[in-house]
Input
Amino acid sequence: MMYDGECFLVVGHAQTARNTNLNDVYDTVSVQLQVKKDTKVVVKANLNVISPLTNRFFQEIVVGYCMDDPIEPILDTIRENMLTPSTGSTVQAMRNAWIRYRDSKFCTRK
Output
């Protein structure tokens, strides 16, 4: 499959919570978002966690989110529904990805 140029990738990182299994495996939590250039909507997402279930749950929350929308509602959804030791790190990594997007040439609302 060849890259079709319709999407861009934005990534955010945050420190993992200490004394957790995730911290034993990774030093940082990483959120990767594949975003459509024309709509600014997340079409694929990944969270580097140990559990595939946690990653899929994160995907269900963020796929469909428009990067031009305010970030707080999606962060609130993560906080309220992902009750994990790494939730705070996940929220910060998502915020960092959104900030990186806002600083990019792809952002249409600054």
The radius of gyration is 14 Å. Helices lie at 21-25, 52-62, 72-81, 87-102. The chain has one domain: 7-102.
